[in-house]
UniProtKB/TrEMBL annotation:
Region (Disordered): 1-29
Gene Ontology biological process: dGTP catabolic process
Biological classification of the source: Bacteria, Bacillati, Actinomycetota, Actinomycetes, Micrococcales
This protein's name: dGTPase
Gene Ontology molecular function: dGTPase activity
Keyword ATP-binding (UniProt): no
A UniProt-annotated Pfam family: HD_assoc
Length: 429
């Protein structure tokens, strides 16, 4: 049986004086102090991080996921039927969104399209990029790459513990690229049978916490901004029917696996609608109802995972409610016509920056950040790519995905001549 606390490159015992922290505490601290974690403060959660202070960004979302995940894990910290370390779960929650590029899902999809078109079958996926960061791109030592997290932490970070497949869910969501194959295989050691490509209990807890935070806090954001009409959904049957129809149609197009029938989801929606405020956000009573709904919701959904025969299982009623809450953001914000022009502009920014950095890998590597130059000069890392040119494209993609939105827009302005900037003002270091 492989050791959960084992690290691939180093030993926790090889310190003088000895480190008093547990392996899980070291994992948490290593993620917390990375520049990749700090960057999340200027990365989109759903809408631009520059919009206004009331919107969540990736950093506030990540901190909330970590808080919910830790509270969940603490319930089973002393269980004899389940091996759960709250520090490992918190480390995974802090790391789970490190790989998301500037501009959120629209950039993630466009980078994937661009890389697949260039014959990189792995494409781009935020979760796989997070795994690449913690195992290759982030550094805590000059002796090896990555954060050298424990096997347990790497497993807990893997929401989608498989490589990319050619179709279905495993084509849309996956946890590792080909160059990180050895790291990924090492992280799954000790798991046998079906467990090899299933979430560990700690990953399941982190994933559930991610859904809880996303569902509740984003709905709160966009109701307060006047984008999600909770008040109309609370009292207008036509609005309710329209929302449900759009939701079911989208889920069919996505081949989403539902936990129940459409009738059961409709019943869950009726329960949610009855809890929504009946007045718009500007009303003081509506604000109070929303604050209470979020607090009560988190408290309730924290109980949505239970232990049954040594396995964690989801409460089906709560899963349906979370699916519907998440659909509110998709239906009224992500699919909104007002966002379409902004998203087209963001795609152009991403494509321009990728072309620029691909050119830099060939002709001007000094324009790359130091960590990217170090990657390209490491023959062992470059050899893990099937082709040198594709390896350079992957590194160019790494650079684009590592930018904050402020950096991406500033660099795009310089490249297109829209904003010349200053020669003494460095954008990317």
């Amino acid at each position: 049986m492989s050791n959960r606390s084992e690290r691939r490159w180093s030993s926790d015992e090889a310190k003088d004086p000895p480190d008093p922290r547990t392996p899980g505490q070291r994992d948490r601290d290593r993620v917390l102090y990375t520049s990749q974690f700090r960057r999340l403060g200027e990365v989109t959660q759903v809408v631009g991080s520059h919009e206004m202070e009331l919107f969540h960004n990736r950093l506030t979302h990540t901190l909330e996921v970590a808080q919910v995940a830790r509270r969940l894990a603490e319930r089973w910290a002393d269980s004899k039927d389940l091996e759960v370390d709250p520090d490992v779960v918190e480390a995974a929650a802090l790391a789970h969104d490190l790989g998301h590029p500037p501009f959120g899902h629209i950039a993630e999809k466009h980078l994937d399209d661009l890389l697949v078109a260039a014959k990189i079958a792995d494409g781009f996926e935020g979760n796989a990029q997070s795994f690449r960061i913690i195992t290759k791109l982030a550094r805590r030592s000059d002796e090896h790459v990555g954060l050298d997290l424990s096997r347990a932490a790497l497993q807990a970070t893997s929401k989608y513990p498989w490589r990319r497949d050619t179709a279905g869910k495993k084509n849309r969501k996956y946890g590792a690229y080909h160059p990180e194959g050895a790291d990924f295989d090492w992280s799954r050691e000790g798991l046998t049978g079906p467990a090899v490509d299933q979430q560990t209990p700690e990953a399941r807890i982190m994933d559930w916490a991610d859904d809880v935070a996303y569902a509740l806090h984003d709905v709160d954001d966009f109701f307060s901004a006047g984008l999600v009409p909770l008040d109309r959904l609370a009292r207008d049957p036509r609005e309710q029917a329209g929302f449900l129809q759009r939701t079911f149609d989208r889920w069919k197009d996505e081949h989403k696996t539902l936990l129940g029938t459409e009738q059961e989801y409709t019943a869950a929606a009726e329960t949610l609608f009855s809890e929504f405020p009946t007045e718009p956000w500007g009303n003081q009573q509506a604000r109070g109802i929303m604050s209470r709904m979020v607090a009560v919701g988190i408290n309730r959904y924290v109980t949505g995972l239970s232990l049954d025969g040594g396995a964690l299982v989801e409460d089906p009623d709560m899963r349906r409610e979370l699916d519907l809450l998440k659909s509110l953001t998709w239906t009224y914000v992500i699919e909104a016509p007002a966002l379409a022009a902004q998203q087209e502009g963001q795609r152009r920014v991403i494509e321009t920056l990728l072309d620029y950095y691909v050119d830099c890998t060939d002709k001007n590597q000094f324009a790359l950040p130091a960590w990217a130059r170090a990657y390209l000069s490491n023959s062992d890392l470059v050899a893990q790519h099937s082709d040198e040119s594709l390896g350079k494209l992957r590194v160019a993609c790494d650079v684009v995905a590592s930018l904050s939105e402020r950096q991406a827009l500033a660099l795009y302005g310089r490249l297109t001549g829209h904003d010349a900037g200053s020669v003494v003002s460095s954008i990317v270091r």
